[in-house]
Amino acid sequence: MAENRHSGKKILIIEDDRHIAEGLGLNLALQGYETKVADTGPAGLKAWREWAPDLIVLDVMLPGMDGISVLRRIRAENEKLPILILSAKSSAEDRVAGLTHGVDDYMVKPFMLEELLLRVDRLLTRISWNGAGRPEQAEDSGEIGTVLSFGPNTIDLETGEAVCIAGQLRLTDQELKLLAVFAENPGKALPRKLLLEVGWGYSRFTSTRTVDNFIVRLRKYFEPEPKQPRYFKSIRSKGYLFDPEGGE
Fold first, then answer.
1. pTM, whole model, 2 decimals?
2. Are 18 and 106 found together in one domain?
3. Cα dihedral sign for 195, 201, 203, 208?
4. What is the mean pLDDT of residues 178-186?
5. pLDDT tens readout for residues 233-248
6. Which domain holds residue 174?
7. Are 118 and 33 members of one domain?
8. Cα–Cα distance for residue pair 61/201, rounded to 1 Å
9. Is the pLDDT of residue 144 over 50?
């Protein structure tokens, strides 16, 4: 089996359902990850402190301490550790609670294993793009950075600072989330529903006009001619596509 580029990365699974935990551990191990399981909130916090994982998969309904409390404890000390909530709680309010306290991604049980593996891979990948739409290595560390560059625009996806056609800007969290998912999927038409899921925790009460309004804003920031977009393109009946090369 080809070695995963994240081989050796450590993933902590905080999950009290033994079958789910064992299944996740096995499939993540097959991808090259090193895994550890904790079945209570306090045990999860202990494992996080002692084992220093690169990513956490976190259930919400846990014995001893619920997952949101675990999330809050971790975020009080570490704002950057990728955390993916995996929960049977699917309401918009539950998603908002997770996002409010700093979760990076939220999946609802039952879930597709392939989708979870893709999301884990995405969370462990820090992306930088050069003007030709290719990954670019950071010069000093050899790590993949967090800078998105296309055309005359440069955006730090971590700090939110942007130098672009519109000048120097500080982007909002929602704008950064949308830019990050576009950067991870260059040249792919992304449906509005997916963009809503990433940016707002999609529910049936959320209008797709929300995404449309944000795309208008991104075009105003980054397009030479916002009404004739080169980078953030509308794809009829599909959604939006990010073209870092700015093709006609």
1. 0.53
2. yes
3. negative
4. 86
5. 999 888 999 999 887 6
6. 147-242
7. yes
8. 19
9. no
More confident residue, 39 or 126: 39
Structure tokens at 188: 């792919």
Within a domain: residue 89?
yes
**Residue 46 shares a structural domain with residue 88:** yes
One domain for residues 14 and 119: yes
DSSP of 204-215: TTS-THHHHHHH
Q: Which amino acid is at 68?
A: I
Are 90 and 166 contained in the same domain? Answer: no
Say if residues 183 and 242 touch (Cβ distance below 8 Å): yes
Amino acid code (one letter) for 96: V
| β pairing state of 161-164 and 167-170 | antiparallel
Q: If you compute the radius of gyration of the chain from its CA atoms, what whole number of angstroms results?
A: 19
Kindly tell me the number of DSSP H helices and DSSP E strands found in the chain. Answer: 8, 12
Tokens at residue 201, please? 């925790």
